[in-house]
Amino acid sequence: MKILIFALVNLVSSFFIEGKLGLNVDYAVFRHSDQQSYLEIFYSVQKSKLTYEFRNGKYNISLFFRLDVVNLDKDSLIISKGWKIETGFPDTVGAAGQDVVDVLRFYVPAGRYKVVMKGIDLFNTQNYDSVAFDVNVPTFVKGDKLLISSLEFCYSIERSTDTNDAFYKNSFRVVPNPTATFGQNVPVLYYYFELYNIFSGVGGDKFVITVNVLDNYQQKVQEVREKRFVRGKVYDSAVEVGTVNVFNLPTGIYYLDVVVSDIEDKILVGNRRKFFIFNPSVTPRVDTSKVIAQVYSLAEGELDDEFSKASYIATQEEKDLYKKLRGIEAKRRFLGTFWARRGGIEFRAQYLQRVKEADEKFTTKYEPGWKTDRGRVYIVYGPPDEVERYPYAENMKPYEIWHYYSLQGGVIFVFGDRRGFGRFELLHSTLVGEIKDENWMYLLMER
């Protein structure tokens, strides 16, 4: 058995690129003690993307996963875990849109972490996936300030006494939704969060929790009624669960906004988290006619090319949906809605102009400019405010440092020609959400 597990670890470790398993991974952080926090990592794979073997009257699946968590502050691997999931289903009817969901829990000190999770379908080893992201784990220390945990999005939450259930948490059965996607197949958003230091952090005997849904422009969504709850100070910490009906929201990006205030409406603490709606049957609130008129003259291949170039700003749900579209009319309507949600014809013109400029500036004999790392950054964030260029120097390969002074108070992007073929790769950035490697210079040293 040890030899088998070791072989599986080596197999799953070799996959570093995105596959087709449909792996989604998310996390939430809660209080454990003043020294440690409670890190939950939850993940899912789509049943419709798995390979089944029929035996013993069931449709069986076999998956192997690997999780690595690195403490970035100490540059040390603190969690390395591999495991199998094997189970069977009576049939595959309704598998599309359904997920296999699981949760992992760890106690960790406050700090910065890198989470890398990989999965492979053992019945089809070409079916694999990999997800990596950074996690900032705060401390929830006792004190006179009210604190709030992560907001956790869930498929369902119900009362439970089964402490052996993997999804049991604080007298509830909490089934997380790692995709953070709701709408057509998941019409109700369930949420879970915790509050700490209520006795010392709230003046008076009561406090108020207000829950709203915001659109992508951070404005309240009128289709969802604001929820307001008055709570008494019963315990020093509290668990809050609730639901939001999102079945009537059009496809798009939204935010769940939670604000906790005292009885006099003084804000004490709050949290906000992004989620996605996929509702193709609901008419968008934006005017798509002008953009559709612009794309109406494009052939189907030109529509495909334009959306491919727009993929840098598309959600995964939009990418998946576009792949399913059949016929030029459906693609015209989709692309019209896509651009209208992001600013209409003016935004489309600016974006495509940047694509053209990226092709002119960064095209190599290996790939067009818009597909390069420099091209992507140029298209998404615009021209840099300043560029430092460092051609070949002693023991160093060429690199560039791009400065953006208005992004997050000032950020940099570092591109380097690691292989010496004029192909500059993104090695490091200080912008949240981009690749970060403080040791990027070592990658450029001649050996």
Could you characterize what this model shows?
There is one protein chain. The protein has 447 residues and is an alpha+beta fold. The chain has four domains: 139 residues, Immunoglobulin-like (Sandwich); 140 residues, Immunoglobulin-like, CATH 2.60.40.2550; 81 residues; 64 residues, no CATH class. It is built from eight helices and 23 strands. The longest helix has 18 residues. It comes from Candidatus Thermokryptus mobilis. InterPro entries: GWxTD_dom. This is GWxTD domain-containing protein.
Lay out the secondary structure.
Elements: H1 2-13, E1 24-31, E2 36-46, E3 53-55, E4 58-71, E5 76-89, E6 99-109, E7 111-121, E8 124-137, E9 147-148, E10 152-159, E11 168-169, E12 172-176, E13 181-183, E14 188-196, H2 198-201, E15 206-214, E16 227-232, E17 238-245, E18 252-262, E19 267-278, H3 289-295, H4 300-309, H5 316-324, H6 328-341, H7 345-362, H8 373-381, E20 386-390, E21 399-404, E22 411-416, E23 425-429
Parallel strand pairs: 13-19
Antiparallel strand pairs: 1-2, 2-6, 3-4, 4-5, 4-7, 7-8, 9-14, 10-12, 10-14, 11-12, 14-17, 15-16, 15-18, 18-19, 20-21, 21-22, 22-23
Helix pairs in contact: 3-6, 4-6, 7-8
